[in-house]
Design a protein that fits this description.
heterodimer; A: alpha+beta; Immunoglobulin-like; 2 domains; five-stranded mixed β-sheet; B: mainly alpha; two-stranded antiparallel sheet; two-stranded parallel ribbon; about 0% strand
Chain lengths: ~150, ~575
């Protein structure tokens, strides 16, 4: 291995280590982490929005062919700005995906399991939610809205 | 080197057959940008549904074309470099299985019985012929490796005890070893989950387990596509760039292949970063390994650039002392001899530069939350598999056809221009997909023209319009590039023979070479790779089977929001009822 080659390899390793350090800092320091395995919540059948405090909500989402059940069949919910929402997601039939556009809430809905993310909705506005995993012929119409006032 | 009739037909047909299918695969690629931009506002066009076409686009382009090419290229390289005849019985068996399997799966897809996309998506379920056809294709692609290439390499080694296995053969072997390992989990998924569910032997499967097994295969497979391209970059590109060209370093090339063998497998969870049911500690470990697998690509970037520098300076000594001007001495668009092939490599490498960077974004654990399943992801992989891989495969297909048929490359100018059209089209398409996906959340795999990109729909999303329209322009250029290639390809295939048909490759010697006994121990590295893969998958497999191995999802098909069993029952009852009424 000649000098140029060794230098290139060293730079490559340092670059990757640098990127990786930033990732770990973002995950563990800034708490922007990926969903993990949770076993204490059983898969549920119905979507519900539960208010625990004026700015604390729990949202149970059931993804099904071809709509998001946010609250007893409704595909649209309203919450006040600044709310912290604990989002639980499951699927009633096939695999779906749930992406709240413009946020880091990006979850897969897999039948038999529950996915979880926490998000603080700071800015008022309409947050569009789209299904981003192929789930059948109605996939392109599977969406929902979270209105933050 | 001469090739006898049967083997010549087999290699030629392994190139031509998938390219015939690829015409349809790429046709539906172009159709998809039209659907997504709302230019076609319909479920289907000319009898092909959007999602059916998407399935065909994925399966043909990413599985059928690549697998056939890997086998044809492997056959030709092993034959040419080891100079030992291939066994006609083995080759025919492999050919029949591969073509037969492909036809089975193609029947299911073309008759709308397998609209499940190439990643399968259980509990959506397809007709069993789709699954078994895929397995038969894969089995056929493994047969030459075990019954032809390995025995030939062993007897070559006996005759040349102090020589290293030629680098191109070494690369092809690493690739097929990887292929052999990675198909095991997906074969388990198909044979123990999808096939039994499809024919009704079991009532339910565990979809999360199925997904984990799939991605155990689904990421390594991208290296199965990539490594033949790397073999060409290392061993052939320097020689195409210049008659006096050399590979910068043979040990570095072998090191890169071994690193691929080790780190290609324990990375599949980075496709499942946003999934429930898997502890994020294991996701982070797979992210580390994904960063490790970026290393051999970075080594390759250096070695390829250094080889090109050597070749350009050997070709034109006047730039010998220049740091940068040698770049101007490469045959970017030249038609003498086989220099037209350089366009394919160069356009592919430029695209792959962006493919590599955007791939690191995908792999970056929490950064994936911003891009997962948005249009960013297809934007990324169209610059890798749809960039370097496709272009080198097409270029090499044309090259091999002209040699094996004994014809000159016809419409050489078009052949040399095609990759640049493709490159420009892919830049526009990928830029639109990546920016629209990452910044605006434009989803992938969605027939958006019906809803989000339809101004008459209540779901209209005007912020996605510009990106969708730019991707149409890109898609049109991609289509033009492919048509130019087809003109040259079929012109060459069907033209009159002017030379003795033969097989030959422009193989470059190494500039730096040294004995590499440790790297050449493929058996040892294979064992290490298997161990690492198994270890990295035990914890996630434990996680996803906590609620049972066969438990919880009945089969669905893409048309009805009810389990398939329930629909069949209702149908049977209605039939019975109507028969009673008839009586």
């Amino acid at each position: 291995m000649d000098r140029a080659e060794r230098n290139a390899l060293t730079i490559a390793v340092i670059l990757l280590l640098f990127f990786f350090t930033l990732i770990v800092y973002a995950a563990k320091g800034l708490k922007i982490d990926l969903p993990t395995c949770i076993t204490d919540v059983q898969p549920f059948k119905e979507g519900r929005l539960i208010k625990h405090a004026p700015d604390r909500y729990e949202l149970h989402v059931v993804a099904r062919m071809w709509y998001f059940d946010f609250n007893q069949g409704s595909t649209e919910i309203e919450i006040p700005a600044g709310s912290v929402v604990d989002i639980y997601l499951t699927s009633a039939d096939v695999v779906h995906g749930m992406h709240i556009n413009g946020t880091t809430v990006n979850l897969m809905a897999i039948p038999g399991t529950v996915n979880y993310a926490r998000y603080r909705f700071e800015k008022p506005g309409v947050y569009h939610v789209v299904c981003h995993e192929f789930c059948g012929v109605g996939h392109q119409a599977m969406q929902g809205r979270i209105v933050v006032r | 080197m001469r090739v006898e009739g049967g083997i010549r037909f087999i290699i030629l047909s392994e190139i031509v057959f998938p390219i015939l299918l690829l015409i349809f695969g790429i046709y539906h690629g172009v159709m998809q940008v039209l659907y997504r931009a709302g230019i076609i506002k319909a479920d289907s066009f000319l009898g092909i549904d959007y999602y059916q076409g998407l399935t065909l686009h994925g399966v043909i382009n990413a599985i059928v074309f690549t697998t056939f090419f890997a086998v044809a290229f492997g056959n030709a390289v092993v034959l040419y470099l080891l100079k030992k005849p291939l066994r006609p019985a083995v080759q025919w068996l492999s050919w029949i299985l591969m073509v037969g399997g492909t036809l089975m799966a193609a029947w299911a897809m073309f008759t709308k019985k397998a609209t499940v996309l190439y990643t399968f998506y259980p509990p959506l379920i397809a007709h069993w012929t789709f699954y078994i056809g895929t397995v038969v294709l894969v089995v056929g692609s493994l047969i030459p490796f075990f019954l032809d290439w390995i025995p030939n390499a062993i007897s070559w080694k006996k005759e040349n005890p102090d020589k290293k296995l030629p680098l191109a053969v070494f690369g092809v072997f690493v690739n097929h070893i990887l292929w052999t390992i990675m198909v095991i989990p997906v074969a388990i998924e198909i044979l123990f989950q999808l096939f039994p569910l499809s024919v009704g032997w079991v009532e339910e499967i565990n979809p999360l387990l199925a997904r984990t097994l799939f991605w155990f295969f689904g990421h390594p497979v991208v290296y199965f596509w990539l490594l033949p391209a790397y073999v060409m970059l290392y061993t052939m590109l320097p020689k195409i760039a210049s008659e006096k060209g050399k590979l910068y370093s043979d040990p570095a090339a072998r090191l890169a292949f071994i690193l691929f063998l080790l780190f290609s497998l324990p990375v599949g969870l980075h496709h499942q970063f946003t999934e429930p049911g898997i502890s994020n500690a294991w996701k982070l470990i797979h992210a580390i390994f994904t960063f490790c697998v970026a290393l051999p690509s970075l080594i390759t970037a250096f070695t390829v650039a250094a080889s090109l520098e050597y070749s350009a300076k050997a070709e034109d000594p006047s730039v010998r002392d220049s740091k940068f001007y040698w770049w101007t001495r490469l045959p970017y668009l030249r038609l003498e001899g086989d220099k037209w092939l350089f366009s394919y490599f160069f356009a592919g490498l430029v695209l792959f530069f962006f493919g590599g960077i955007t791939g690191i974004v995908n792999a970056s654990y929490n950064l994936n939350l911003a891009v997962h399943n948005t249009a960013y992801v297809p934007g990324h992989f169209h610059t890798t598999v749809g960039g370097l891989v496709l272009l080198t495969f097409l270029g090499m297909s044309l090259y091999m056809v002209s040699k094996l048929r004994g014809t000159d490359v016809k419409f050489k100018g078009l052949a040399a221009l095609a990759p640049y059209f493709w490159m420009q089209g892919m830049f526009m398409f990928s830029y639109a997909m990546m920016v629209g996906g990452a910044l605006e959340g434009f989803p992938r795999r969605t027939n958006a023209g019906l809803t989000y990109l339809n101004p008459d729909s209540p779901l209209y999303r005007p912020e996605w319009v510009g990106y969708a329209q730019l991707s149409v322009v890109g898609g049109a250029l991609l289509g033009i590039g492919f048509v130019l290639f087809l003109v040259a390809f079929f012109g060459t295939l069907l033209s009159r023979r002017v030379r003795e048909p033969q097989i030959e490759f422009p193989i470059a010697q190494a500039y730096h070479d040294a004995p590499t006994p440790v790297l050449n121990n493929l058996k040892g590295w294979t064992v290490a790779a298997v161990l690492l893969a198994v270890l990295s998958y035990i914890p996630p497999l434990y996680d996803v089977t906590q609620r049972g191995v066969f438990y919880n999802s009945p089969a669905y098909n893409e048309k009805f929001p009810l389990p398939l069993k329930q629909i069949q029952q209702t149908e049977a009852e209605t039939k019975e009822l109507s028969m009673k009424e008839g009586n």
